[in-house]
Design brief:
Strand order of the largest sheet: 2-1-3-4-5
CATH class of the domain at 1-189: Alpha Beta
Radius of gyration: 24 Å
Bound molecules: iron/sulfur cluster
Largest sheet: 5 strands, parallel
Shape: globular
Helix content: 25-40%
CATH topology of the domain at 1-189: Rossmann fold
Number of strands: 21
Number of helices: 16
Oligomer: single chain
């Protein structure tokens, strides 16, 4: 952590006395017996957490919010209104860091207007080996926390009073290790701190419908373009029973969807000790670094046990079980069989391919071949007919020839993914790829990205048209704002956003859905078990419910339909009886 000199030397950067500048948070009720010990509640900061990047960051932000709420702070409605701004950064692409750098001016101006305001930067943008340069790059930031230090946020800000949960008063998770000769964050203590946070009810989940459940932190892989091994450190799996206990409590709380998280979620368990109870697990890696996985728990085992958590009706207590992000190295037959046999496992897999050319995959350090990738995918498609598959692709990586790029397009044509998240390569500080020349000109990167997105546009539309005329189960997630008829034109100057799915493509003028399902009906959006985005009209009361929708329109990024069967299954957030 970097502490700014304006603070008392040695003391944690206490916010308390200087926060009166901000709008005081409404004081929570205080037990009269301990009122005199409690800090001046009016001085506790209103906080705002700005989360960028992946689902793991969203889960970490839920834990940080839980800490601050447990310390007595309240949420602020916006970054501008907050006394304490926490920015949970992503560093996978230059674009993500540029967004935060672009806000330094605003933050500095807000702090000038409110001297008590404080800004904390966390996430993958905080890497131990580059700490010295951080203050220069992020001048408005007062404190920098690596991912392993995040559970100590409230304590380091001096916000934890003697009334706070013990776990919050005693938390200590900071740890580093060495990767490629450099100090990096280590997740050694994150599993224990999450269990304590759960026991003290300090995970502020952002939805009552879907829950994130991290099962493995960090990444051991060798992708040369990637910053994650240097920002989050090596893979550290959480204890099997902790995960099952958390899944059970999520089911009991009435969540209908659960997503197991890991930078490499299907590598779960390889670092845990072998146990007799897992003696039936005999699996091995099909690519990459070989490991002894005998008698160690794996993702397949977790899926089966969580699927086995049953509700009073005998069905899975959690109707939609998902996991993200998978790596081809660990797509074992056991995992594929579990995906096929477990009722609750949703029929969608996110499996990054990154390139369709073997020489390029080698330069990227992916350690599998296109043939291997296709073989595993064919095995899954055979085991789970109709499964939807999404992927990630990088264009314009070091040395990419036109032929290598065309090989990637050919792979997309052959594999026919449902969704492709594509990006142009941007060099990341400290990654092995920096030793390679970033020699593909920006204009060529843009042209290739546009060409790839246009190709996937056609494929995505064709895949989605297969759903026309079908009745599908949709979990309604939210109201969609007045929809603009949007034609997704591939913007040459903003490659990243052009890849953003969810912007519906009409070209034929999709009417606003509000009111089309009777008086008071609004435009809603939700997802199928195949992770297809579906637009529909209906009563806002449908949010959180699963409904049957007849699909009558397909675009490359989304489907549209009308409700033909009213809600099935329990309402979200309603406690569920879980039977042993
Ligand atoms: S698998 Fe590769 S791309 Fe994914 S987080 Fe690990 S190093 Fe990065």
């Amino acid at each position: 952590m970097t502490v700014r000199p304006q603070d008392t030397p040695g003391a944690p950067m206490s916010l308390r006395p200087r926060l009166l500048g901000g709008a005081p948070a409404a004081p929570p009720s205080v037990d009269p017996g301990v009122a005199e010990f409690r800090p001046e509640t009016h001085s506790l900061p209103g906080f705002f957490i700005w989360t960028l990047g992946c689902q793991m960051n969203q889960s970490d932000s839920e834990e940080m919010a839980g800490q601050l709420l447990a310390a007595g702070c309240l949420r602020s409605p916006s970054l501008e209104a907050a006394d304490l701004v926490v920015i949970n950064t992503c560093a996978v692409r230059e674009h993500a860091e540029a967004k935060v750098i672009g806000r330094q001016g605003l933050l500095t101006a807000l702090k000038r207007a409110r001297p008590g305001m404080r800004v904390v930067l966390t996430g993958c943008g905080v890497r131990e080996s580059e700490r010295d340069g951080l203050a220069r790059r992020f001048p408005a930031v007062d404190m920098f926390l690596r991912p392993d230090e995040e559970p100590e946020l409230a304590l380091r800000l001096g916000l934890v009073s003697a009334q706070a949960p013990i776990g919050l008063q005693t938390v200590s998770t900071a740890a580093t290790t060495v990767v490629s000769g450099r100090p990096v964050s280590a997740a050694d203590r994150l599993a224990a701190s999450r269990s304590t946070a759960l026991a003290e009810d300090r995970v502020a989940r952002s939805s009552t419908l879907s829950a994130w459940l991290p099962i493995v932190y960090g990444c051991d892989k060798t992708c040369t373009y990637c910053i994650v091994p240097f920002s989050r450190g090596p893979e550290r799996s959480r204890p099997f029973d902790d995960i099952v206990a958390e899944a059970r409590s999520i089911a009991e709380a009435g969540f209908v969807e659960l997503t197991l998280l890991g930078q490499n979620v299907n590598s779960y368990g390889h670092d845990l000790p072998a146990e007799e109870r897992f003696a039936h697990i005999e699996t091995e890696r099909s690519a990459g670094r070989r490991l002894d996985l005998q008698s160690r728990p794996d993702l397949a085992e977790l899926l089966c046990v969580i699927d086995g958590i049953r509700g009073a009706d005998g069905g899975p207590a959690i109707s939609r079980l998902r996991f993200i992000t998978s790596h081809p190295w660990d797509l074992s037959d056991r995992l594929i069989d579990a995906m096929a046999s477990c009722e609750s496992v949703a029929e969608h897999l996110h499996l990054p391919i990154q390139s369709g050319d073997d020489a390029m995959l080698q330069r990227m350090g992916r350690q599998y071949t296109l043939a291997h990738y296709k073989l595993r995918l064919a095995r899954i498609r055979e085991a789970v007919p109709g499964i939807a598959v999404s992927t990630d692709v990088i264009v314009g990586f070091c040395g990419e020839t036109e032929a290598e790029f065309q090989a990637t397009l050919a792979a997309l044509e052959e594999i026919r993914f449902d969704t492709v998240f594509a990006a142009a390569y941007s060099p990341r500080p400290g990654t092995p790829a920096l030793r390679l020349a970033d020699d593909v000109p920006p204009a060529v990167k843009r042209r290739r990205l546009n060409e790839l997105l246009a190709r996937q546009h056609t494929i995505g539309l064709e895949r989605n048209r297969e759903w026309l005329g079908r009745d599908v189960e949709v979990l309604v997630e939210r109201i969609t704002p007045q929809r603009q008829v949007a034609v997704v034109s591939i913007a040459p100057d903003d490659a990243d956003t052009a890849a953003e799915p969810g912007l519906d493509y009409a070209g034929v003028g999709v009417p606003d859905l509000a009111g089309t399902a009777g008086e008071g009906s609004v435009a809603l959006a939700g997802r199928t078990r195949h992770n297809k985005l579906v637009h529909l009209a209906g009563d806002p009361e449908l949010i959180g419910r699963a409904v049957i929708v007849h699909i009558d329109y397909a675009g490359p990024f989304a489907l549209r339909g009308r409700v033909v069967a009213t809600p099935i299954g329990p309402s979200p957030g309603v406690a569920t009886t879980v039977v042993e």
